[in-house]
Amino acid sequence: MSDETDAAGHEFSGLGDVVSLTSAPQQIADHILSGIAVGALPEGTLLPGERTLAADLQVSRSSVRAALLRLERLGVVERRRGRGGGTFVKNARPEALAPMAGRIEEFHAERRNLLDARAVFQNCLAATAARRRTEDELTELRQLAADYSRRAEAAAARTADAQFHFAVARAGHNPELVRMAIDIDTKINAGFRHDPFSAELFDHAVADHAAIVEAIAEQDAETAGRLCEEHFRFTTIVSQG
User: Fold this and answer.
1) What is the DSSP string of 59-90?
2) What is the model's pLDDT at position 50?
Protein backbone atom coordinates (compact mmCIF):
# COMPACT_ATOMS: atom_id res chain seq x y z
CA MET A 1 0.00 0.00 0.00
CA SER A 2 1.34 3.44 -0.91
CA ASP A 3 2.33 5.67 1.97
CA GLU A 4 1.15 8.61 -0.09
CA THR A 5 -2.04 8.06 1.88
CA ASP A 6 -0.16 9.47 4.89
CA ALA A 7 -1.23 12.82 3.47
CA ALA A 8 -4.62 12.09 5.02
CA GLY A 9 -2.90 13.45 8.11
CA HIS A 10 -3.53 11.67 11.40
CA GLU A 11 -7.29 11.46 10.89
CA PHE A 12 -7.40 8.42 13.16
CA SER A 13 -5.27 9.99 15.91
CA GLY A 14 -6.67 9.07 19.32
CA LEU A 15 -8.11 5.69 18.42
CA GLY A 16 -5.44 4.13 20.64
CA ASP A 17 -7.38 5.50 23.61
CA VAL A 18 -10.33 3.23 22.88
CA VAL A 19 -8.64 0.19 21.38
CA SER A 20 -7.74 -2.75 23.57
CA LEU A 21 -4.27 -3.84 22.51
CA THR A 22 -5.12 -7.47 23.26
CA SER A 23 -7.49 -7.51 20.28
CA ALA A 24 -6.27 -4.55 18.26
CA PRO A 25 -6.97 -5.87 14.73
CA GLN A 26 -10.62 -6.71 15.42
CA GLN A 27 -11.30 -3.53 17.38
CA ILE A 28 -9.69 -1.36 14.70
CA ALA A 29 -11.78 -3.18 12.10
CA ASP A 30 -14.95 -2.73 14.20
CA HIS A 31 -14.34 0.98 14.54
CA ILE A 32 -13.90 1.45 10.80
CA LEU A 33 -16.96 -0.72 10.15
CA SER A 34 -18.99 1.45 12.49
CA GLY A 35 -17.87 4.58 10.66
CA ILE A 36 -18.92 3.03 7.36
CA ALA A 37 -22.29 1.94 8.78
CA VAL A 38 -23.26 5.44 9.98
CA GLY A 39 -22.03 7.17 6.85
CA ALA A 40 -18.97 8.84 8.35
CA LEU A 41 -16.83 6.91 5.86
CA PRO A 42 -18.79 6.79 2.58
CA GLU A 43 -17.84 4.72 -0.45
CA GLY A 44 -14.67 6.01 -2.06
CA THR A 45 -13.16 7.37 1.17
CA LEU A 46 -9.38 7.00 1.27
CA LEU A 47 -8.22 5.66 4.64
CA PRO A 48 -4.89 6.83 6.09
CA GLY A 49 -1.82 4.72 5.29
CA GLU A 50 -0.70 1.84 7.47
CA ARG A 51 2.25 3.80 8.84
CA THR A 52 0.05 6.74 9.85
CA LEU A 53 -2.58 4.49 11.44
CA ALA A 54 0.01 2.50 13.36
CA ALA A 55 1.66 5.66 14.70
CA ASP A 56 -1.65 7.24 15.70
CA LEU A 57 -2.92 4.06 17.35
CA GLN A 58 0.42 3.19 18.95
CA VAL A 59 0.16 -0.33 17.60
CA SER A 60 2.29 -2.29 15.17
CA ARG A 61 1.81 -2.02 11.43
CA SER A 62 1.05 -5.73 11.46
CA SER A 63 -2.04 -5.08 13.65
CA VAL A 64 -3.24 -2.39 11.27
CA ARG A 65 -2.51 -4.60 8.27
CA ALA A 66 -4.47 -7.46 9.85
CA ALA A 67 -7.46 -5.17 10.51
CA LEU A 68 -7.47 -3.90 6.92
CA LEU A 69 -7.13 -7.44 5.62
CA ARG A 70 -10.22 -8.49 7.60
CA LEU A 71 -12.16 -5.61 6.07
CA GLU A 72 -10.88 -6.44 2.60
CA ARG A 73 -12.01 -10.06 2.99
CA LEU A 74 -15.43 -8.79 4.04
CA GLY A 75 -15.55 -6.80 0.82
CA VAL A 76 -16.04 -3.38 2.42
CA VAL A 77 -12.62 -1.95 1.51
CA GLU A 78 -10.24 -2.44 -1.37
CA ARG A 79 -6.52 -1.85 -1.64
CA ARG A 80 -5.18 -0.30 -4.82
CA ARG A 81 -1.56 -0.42 -5.87
CA GLY A 82 0.61 2.16 -7.55
CA ARG A 83 0.44 5.92 -7.75
CA GLY A 84 -2.71 7.22 -6.14
CA GLY A 85 -3.21 3.87 -4.46
CA GLY A 86 -4.18 3.05 -0.90
CA THR A 87 -7.09 1.57 1.00
CA PHE A 88 -10.53 2.82 -0.04
CA VAL A 89 -14.02 2.17 1.29
CA LYS A 90 -15.51 -0.09 -1.39
CA ASN A 91 -19.00 -1.03 -0.28
CA ALA A 92 -21.08 0.87 2.26
CA ARG A 93 -24.48 -0.52 1.28
CA PRO A 94 -26.59 -1.86 4.18
CA GLU A 95 -26.87 -5.33 2.63
CA ALA A 96 -23.08 -5.58 2.49
CA LEU A 97 -22.78 -4.65 6.16
CA ALA A 98 -25.63 -6.92 7.33
CA PRO A 99 -23.36 -9.90 8.16
CA MET A 100 -21.39 -7.62 10.52
CA ALA A 101 -24.49 -6.22 12.23
CA GLY A 102 -23.72 -7.95 15.52
CA ARG A 103 -20.24 -6.53 15.79
CA ILE A 104 -21.38 -3.06 14.76
CA GLU A 105 -24.15 -3.13 17.38
CA GLU A 106 -21.67 -4.24 20.03
CA PHE A 107 -19.45 -1.30 19.16
CA HIS A 108 -22.36 1.15 19.33
CA ALA A 109 -23.50 -0.28 22.65
CA GLU A 110 -20.12 0.60 24.13
CA ARG A 111 -20.51 4.17 22.87
CA ARG A 112 -23.93 4.87 24.36
CA ASN A 113 -22.59 5.64 27.82
CA LEU A 114 -20.01 7.95 26.28
CA LEU A 115 -22.70 9.77 24.32
CA ASP A 116 -24.77 10.22 27.47
CA ALA A 117 -21.72 11.50 29.33
CA ARG A 118 -20.98 13.94 26.51
CA ALA A 119 -24.48 15.44 26.66
CA VAL A 120 -24.31 15.87 30.44
CA PHE A 121 -20.82 17.35 30.28
CA GLN A 122 -21.69 19.75 27.47
CA ASN A 123 -24.53 21.05 29.66
CA CYS A 124 -21.96 21.95 32.30
CA LEU A 125 -19.60 23.51 29.76
CA ALA A 126 -22.25 25.79 28.28
CA ALA A 127 -23.52 26.81 31.71
CA THR A 128 -19.98 27.64 32.83
CA ALA A 129 -19.34 29.61 29.64
CA ALA A 130 -22.49 31.67 30.29
CA ARG A 131 -21.17 32.62 33.72
CA ARG A 132 -17.55 33.34 32.74
CA ARG A 133 -17.38 34.35 29.07
CA THR A 134 -15.80 37.62 28.00
CA GLU A 135 -17.10 39.93 25.30
CA ASP A 136 -14.31 38.80 22.99
CA GLU A 137 -15.29 35.16 23.54
CA LEU A 138 -18.93 35.99 22.86
CA THR A 139 -17.88 37.61 19.59
CA GLU A 140 -15.90 34.48 18.70
CA LEU A 141 -18.88 32.24 19.45
CA ARG A 142 -21.13 34.34 17.24
CA GLN A 143 -18.59 34.12 14.44
CA LEU A 144 -18.16 30.36 14.79
CA ALA A 145 -21.94 29.85 14.80
CA ALA A 146 -22.13 31.93 11.61
CA ASP A 147 -19.25 29.96 10.09
CA TYR A 148 -21.08 26.71 10.80
CA SER A 149 -24.22 28.00 9.09
CA ARG A 150 -22.23 28.28 5.84
CA ARG A 151 -20.84 24.72 5.96
CA ALA A 152 -23.67 22.71 4.43
CA GLU A 153 -21.38 19.77 3.55
CA ALA A 154 -20.87 16.89 5.96
CA ALA A 155 -17.12 16.94 6.67
CA ALA A 156 -16.84 20.73 6.85
CA ALA A 157 -19.97 20.99 9.01
CA ARG A 158 -18.72 18.37 11.49
CA THR A 159 -15.41 20.24 11.83
CA ALA A 160 -17.14 23.60 12.26
CA ASP A 161 -19.47 22.11 14.88
CA ALA A 162 -16.48 20.80 16.86
CA GLN A 163 -14.78 24.20 16.67
CA PHE A 164 -17.89 25.91 18.01
CA HIS A 165 -18.24 23.57 20.98
CA PHE A 166 -14.53 23.70 21.85
CA ALA A 167 -14.84 27.51 21.91
CA VAL A 168 -17.71 27.11 24.37
CA ALA A 169 -15.41 24.95 26.52
CA ARG A 170 -12.60 27.53 26.37
CA ALA A 171 -15.00 30.25 27.49
CA GLY A 172 -15.21 28.47 30.85
CA HIS A 173 -11.64 29.61 31.59
CA ASN A 174 -10.53 26.25 32.95
CA PRO A 175 -7.93 24.29 30.93
CA GLU A 176 -8.99 21.04 32.64
CA LEU A 177 -12.51 21.44 31.28
CA VAL A 178 -11.09 21.87 27.80
CA ARG A 179 -8.87 18.83 28.25
CA MET A 180 -11.83 16.75 29.40
CA ALA A 181 -13.90 17.95 26.43
CA ILE A 182 -11.15 16.90 24.03
CA ASP A 183 -10.75 13.56 25.79
CA ILE A 184 -14.41 12.59 25.55
CA ASP A 185 -14.60 13.81 21.95
CA THR A 186 -11.58 11.66 21.08
CA LYS A 187 -13.07 8.58 22.71
CA ILE A 188 -16.36 9.00 20.85
CA ASN A 189 -15.06 9.96 17.43
CA ALA A 190 -11.59 8.40 17.52
CA GLY A 191 -10.25 9.85 14.32
CA PHE A 192 -13.43 10.38 12.29
CA ARG A 193 -16.72 11.85 13.33
CA HIS A 194 -19.63 9.41 13.57
CA ASP A 195 -22.38 12.00 14.06
CA PRO A 196 -24.98 11.69 11.28
CA PHE A 197 -25.52 14.50 8.78
CA SER A 198 -28.49 15.61 6.72
CA ALA A 199 -30.03 18.89 5.57
CA GLU A 200 -32.61 18.60 8.35
CA LEU A 201 -29.99 17.98 11.03
CA PHE A 202 -27.88 20.84 9.69
CA ASP A 203 -30.78 23.31 9.89
CA HIS A 204 -31.59 22.07 13.39
CA ALA A 205 -27.97 22.57 14.49
CA VAL A 206 -27.82 26.08 13.01
CA ALA A 207 -30.85 27.05 15.12
CA ASP A 208 -29.43 25.28 18.19
CA HIS A 209 -26.09 27.10 17.95
CA ALA A 210 -27.82 30.47 17.63
CA ALA A 211 -29.99 29.79 20.68
CA ILE A 212 -27.02 28.59 22.75
CA VAL A 213 -25.04 31.72 21.87
CA GLU A 214 -27.92 33.97 22.85
CA ALA A 215 -28.29 32.22 26.21
CA ILE A 216 -24.56 32.62 26.82
CA ALA A 217 -24.82 36.28 25.79
CA GLU A 218 -27.60 36.76 28.36
CA GLN A 219 -25.45 34.92 30.94
CA ASP A 220 -28.37 32.55 31.46
CA ALA A 221 -26.43 29.51 32.61
CA GLU A 222 -29.42 27.24 33.14
CA THR A 223 -30.84 27.83 29.66
CA ALA A 224 -27.46 27.63 27.95
CA GLY A 225 -26.73 24.30 29.60
CA ARG A 226 -30.14 22.84 28.86
CA LEU A 227 -30.06 23.90 25.21
CA CYS A 228 -26.59 22.47 24.72
CA GLU A 229 -27.52 19.14 26.28
CA GLU A 230 -30.67 18.95 24.16
CA HIS A 231 -28.58 19.70 21.07
CA PHE A 232 -26.29 16.74 21.71
CA ARG A 233 -29.08 14.40 22.74
CA PHE A 234 -31.03 15.15 19.56
CA THR A 235 -28.06 14.11 17.43
CA THR A 236 -27.59 10.99 19.57
CA ILE A 237 -31.22 9.94 19.14
CA VAL A 238 -30.98 10.35 15.37
CA SER A 239 -27.69 8.45 15.19
CA GLN A 240 -29.22 5.51 17.04
CA GLY A 241 -32.19 5.42 14.66
Assistant:
1) S-HHHHHHHHHHHHHHTSEEEE-STT-EEEE-
2) 85
